[in-house]
Amino acid sequence: MASADSLTKITIKRNGNGETEFDAYVLGEAGAPGIVVLQEWWGVDFEIKNHAATIANKGYRTLIPDLYRGKVGLDIAEAQHLMEGLDWQGAVKDIAASVQWLKENGSKKVGVTGFCMGGALALASAVLVPEVDAAVGFYGTPNPGLADVTKVKIPVQAHFGELDGFKGFSDVETAKALEEKLKQAGVPHEIYIYPKVAHAFMNASPEAVKRGKAELGAPDLDTGVIDTAWSRFSAWFTKYLSA
């Protein structure tokens, strides 16, 4: 059974203005379908590593690119500052290099998933990174200036909480608007809005639950919703990455 402690740290190079390196964390068997797992606004912390391990245990090779270059937010103010300072176009290049690394190292097909900020980047990657085969986003949508989701060309699944209060980013109205845009794109898509849960409802570790209550006023953990979302996630990627 893979765990967050089993992740292997690697260095990936990407080409842009000169050559840029970034750290990434890999878990799972070479040759398995790959999934790039994208961080929340906190950074590459314990919870995104837990998600990568959960996904690896479903039969995938997971890779987390460190978009913040080692920095981790310890509270909302710091996380907000880090996200606002992110080079979003550069992050998309990191994701493209991560997809390429997985394909060059045995994964025939590669998906992208992400949570919060990472959910927005997963959907942006579905527009901007042609090598991605399918995407699943959790409670995040990209700014139209970064990516126009009506131009998505791959299958997209997305998950949102009914009580999510991040207007224009992951609230119910934004989720419904995303569904309309994906209809315009004409791609296979599924949008799920779960009752009685808020933002970051997939975070199940005791540390994350405590943080969610303290920092975001989150409701109690709903393991039934988490199980349902992971089941739908698995069915989606099995259909589009394992075929």
From TrEMBL:
Residues 22-240 form the Dienelactone hydrolase domain. SUPFAM superfamilies: alpha/beta-Hydrolases. Pfam families: DLH. InterPro entries: AB_hydrolase_fold (IPR029058), Dienelactn_hydro (IPR002925), Dienelactone_hydrolase-like (IPR051049). It comes from the Eukaryota. PANTHER family: ALPHA_BETA-HYDROLASES SUPERFAMILY PROTEIN, CARBOXYMETHYLENEBUTENOLIDASE-RELATED. This is Dienelactone hydrolase domain-containing protein.
